[in-house]
Predict the 3D structure of the following.
Amino acid sequence: MVYNSKLFDVIVCGAGHAGVEAALAASRMGASTLLLTGNIDTIAQMSCNPAIGGQAKGQMVREIDALGGEMAINTDVTGIQFRLLNESKGAAVQSPRAQCDKKAYQFRLKHTLELQANLQIFQATVTGLIFTSGKVIGCRTNLDLDFMGKTVVVTTGTFLRGLMHIGQNKNEGGRLGDFSAKTLSNSFLEAGIELQRLKTGTPPRLLGRSLDFGKMQEQKGDTQPTLFAFHDTRDPQDLFHVEQTGERRLGWKPGFEQVSCWMTHTTAETADIVRRNLNKSAMYSGEIEGVGPRYCPSIEDKFVRFADKPRHLLFLEPEGRSTNEFYVNGLSTSLPFDVQVEMVHSIPGLEKSVLLRPAYAVEYDFAPPTQLYPSLESKKVENLFFAGQINGTSGYEEAAAQGLVAGINAVQKGRAGEPLIIKRHESYIGVLIDDLVTKGTNEPYRMFTSRAEHRLLFNHGSAELRLLHHARALNLLSPQRIARVEAKKNSINTWIKRIETERVAGHIFGDRIRSQGVDSPTPNSFDLVPPEVRQEVLYNVLYKGYIERERRHVLKLEQTEKIKIPADLDYSSVRGLRRECAQKLAAFKPYTLGQASRISGINPADISVLLVLIESTRAGQGRP
Amino acid sequence: MSRYLDTIAALATPVGTSAIALVRVSGPDSAQLVTDIFGEAPAPRLARHADYRDRQGLVLDDVLFTFFAGPASYTGEDSLEISCHGNPYIAQRLVEDLLSRGCRSAEPGEFTQRAFLQGQIDLAQAEAVMDLIHARSERALAAANRQLRGALGQQMTGLIDELLIALARVEAYIDFPDEDLPAEDRKIVENQIANVLRGTDRLLATRHYGEVLRHGIKTVIIGEPNAGKSSLLNRLVGKERAIVSPEPGTTRDFIEEVINLGPHCFRLIDTAGLNPKPGAIEELGMGKTYEIAAEADFFLVVLDATSPTPLFDIRLSDLLSPDRVIVVVNKIDQPGSPSTLEFLPPARSVAVSAKTGLGLEDLRSALIGLADGLAPHTGDDAIAINARHAHALNQAKADLASAQLKLGENAASELVASDLRGALAALGEISGRIDNERMLDALFANFCIGK
């Protein structure tokens, strides 16, 4: 039965961080969009820590803003503590991070979705997809209502056959208190999509009034908060808050009334408790088959793998302004509940703490992302897109970035337009998606700045400038904002040119800045330039040599990125291609020659052979 | 117009001694290279005779070069063909110099590929090109794999692992700033970089031995005119070699032959006819003979047994250490008094007659004896790197030096990391691309990460 006889342009299954960006992007591009979620009250839930940004992720959130996404502005408006990380490591790797009010974050996003034109939200659990001849055409739900769409974006997070572990205790579900999507996995398997298991975990939540903050070290926010959205180019109405708009939407002025986090550490007693009970941990008793992330190990792992380290740092992060709940960053575990209590009580400041929710590990299905094109469309099923944890990633920011791209590309697919493929040298989002679809992942994939070979081009302030051409080509921003970004870009370039040509006391300003630092003299009116422009100009001047070096590398790489490989290329018939290489490429279906060159085991000669073939075919087609 | 941004260079004729070696260059920088190397404006399709000067301004050889402006060239883009003397050593030096000027070493079949892509060739021709690329790359791959399975591969792995850990040490503090890591100690990184630098130097030192293995031990025959150098060369080679009278200014000024003795390969270079009398070197400037002698492994100092006081250039004697010299007293079949060798340090001495062959076996044994002591002290296995390896190692060295400088200046970590990544990429050109995942493996193995 079809509840809504309408044929949607895009159906998004799941309203987590990936799903909401996908739905917003699609509907903002004018596509009729349906967002299905198992529970409307948990839209954009922060299932793990109540924070957005941090290393590389912070830059990625700004990139999302540059492409018209919602995560940045939502974080600014609901953030309760802001810090700029890495101030001493160099300008490119400085990353904004914010603690958010978990509930406010959700409510504001829910409200944004509700008010969005072209978008319908509906609460139903997707139980299966509807296919016809290798294409997806809609989905089934637990309410026995079917929905039809030209394209479907799947963003199931940890809910696909989600299984939670607390010691020997097991509960089905993608998150404590939530359900597990059990039958949807079968739908994928039927379509020939391979699934594997991953594992992640979350620490216990504590009651604030049971904590002794006097024994902890306070970590305050920055007095000058670094925000995520580009408020200098955004439209004024984007920054609504309660006092300023007639609509009763939630939010307050970004960066106001910040709250603190608190630092404490494990003790020798904690280590002892963990070691004594290791065999009771789900991770160590063989209960869990999925692979967990190396960068976010459980406390068991930390004591076992780094046995000589006497103590581990813990952060207590407030979950919001209107709750007394605290998140214990660093204490993820799958030990039984009684051991968790004993362990928590061995920590300074937490001796008498009350646990509101236990820590747990969760296992879930993911679809190895090498089964996707760089557009995030499935190679197996046409019109089907995947984004977020189902692709093996971890983190809200990684999910949101993929959701945004998948949503845009679902619309483009329906309109037979060119997909948005962001390149590795343009942004962290480009690195993220290229890594996923080219290399795949064995553990929940998290972005690091070190994954980006061109990270010196990716300073957070330049996100808008780097991605402007994509935003313009796909109309992802309002015409007014595009105009403002263009004006900003021009202003930056003009200033760079002035500083690199004009002289002070016989020296080029730029040379003086590079040799003597940013406090060297600048042309007169440069002081009056807005800080966003100023920072970009100085960045470009200071890093001139490096930026030029990176750009030279990029120019070379772009050659092969431009050459698309026909999807129907019969590799087995290509003369001069090694057989194992032909098989690998046939299974992989690389999108461009550049992507092919990054597949492991493909050597330059193979690429040369492919290049010759593609060019000769193209030359042949071009003839009358 | 070229569709490529990079300029490629390679030796186009087979490696080995032939009369002429052809070095081919193709790409947008070709015209600039003509100006830089030969100091003249490129004139298309005109064979020019000129000195090839390397980046330090030293003359490597006098060559014939022809510049072709695209599309009227073999590859269809600007290109340059340089004919130098067939000495593999000279050809290698030229290629190396081109690489150091920013050219990239051409992949197997790449010139043909470019030729194909610049023109519009049908599928049949394309398939022929693909077959060619395939065949050449299989050979190149097999050769590279053989090398990497050996001691070179092991040394490279050692260097790369150390560099990965150094990089991980920098990256850990960039990517995990809020972690409970021990205080950052850049001294450790500096030490690791120093270790890697020592390793690259060790490998670069085998460069010469690599040349020796590939092209023979460079053995220069010196001595006054009429001491019998040419006869000795002919006797060692075992055939009557026509002594080509060099055409002025066009061919090389020395004669070269390759012989195998025992397990060793020797490249005998006869400086016949050009060995200057004392004082003449100054007139010739840094003459060819002196240049060649400066790079010789061994010397055969030929003395005339019938001439009591040989004329000998003292400058050359500076190069003559006992472990590199065999004094060959020639013409022992003729009556005369033995020469005095006061100007030489004590060295092995063999008495021969190039004319009759008397004593030649002694000379052969003496040469084998010298060569046995030549293997470099890099470990049990012999390692031999080639010009491409050397180029990559030098690039890695430059990046590492830059990283050291930045650490010294207390520069931002992201800039130090940028250099270390450059060095890693350069080493990857020898060992195969190094995936970033290996750095992350090193990072997570060495640091307790995770909140």
